[in-house]
Structures are given as structure tokens and as C-alpha cells.
Please model this.
Amino acid sequence: MQIVAALFLDEFDMRETPGPSTRLDLTGVHFSTPAPNAFPVRVEPHLVVLVRCGASDSDTSTLEVVYRTAGADPDDASAQKARNVQMLQVEPGKFSYRLVRAELEFEESGTIEAHCSLDSGPVTIVPFTMLEPVD
Model:
């Protein structure tokens, strides 16, 4: 299995089209957002991870998403802000997705990265930056 894409977004919808063929409507894709109020803030951004299962791949895998402070040493346990692990089952030759939510605490503006991997394979890193609040 492979990660095709991982994105933070506001809304996610699926719809069938003739074929049958599935369409994914991704709305409000973003990598930063202003803080909703004065720091510290707690947010739950929506991360969608799109995966594909090759025709000869195993149909099961484990998706792990570890949220870390950007630029931190991967061995620094204090850099880990949240973690999510989900089992996947995808029919060979097909695509699927998982929605991943985590409570992220920001003491000040800065960036947290979502490190996404399947079965401890290659890592896809997606940044999420909390900006200063808008007046």
C-alpha cells in the first residue's frame, strides 16, 4: 500500500459518478490557519490521508500519524504532540482514505508536522502552522 496524498482540509465529501467512478471533493485545503483566540489554543484540524493498494499488495496495513514539533529531533519524545494509529483494509487495485483528527495545543504561533506512514514505511510529512490571531 502507498500514501497518495495527505492534506489538512475543512471539508471532505465523496460522490459516485457513472462508471462507477468515485469523486472526492476536498474543500478548504490548507497548511496554516490563524489562531481562533489568544494563545494558548487547542485545535483539532482535519487531516485526510489518501491511500492506494496495488494489485499485488497486501490488502491490510497500519496507518500511523505522529504529530511533532517542526524541526525537532525525531528521537526527542517531548517533540511528539499527538499520535493516531488505524488499521486499514483496502481491496487490491483500489483507493481509500482515512480521516485523522488530533487535539493539538499551541502555546504560541508555530508549526507542527504530521508524519504519516504505512507499516513503518516511507514517511509523508504535512506541515500545519498556527498563525497569530487576526484582530
User: Anything to note?
Assistant: The CA atoms of residues 6 and 106 lie 21 Å apart. The chain has one domain: 2-125.
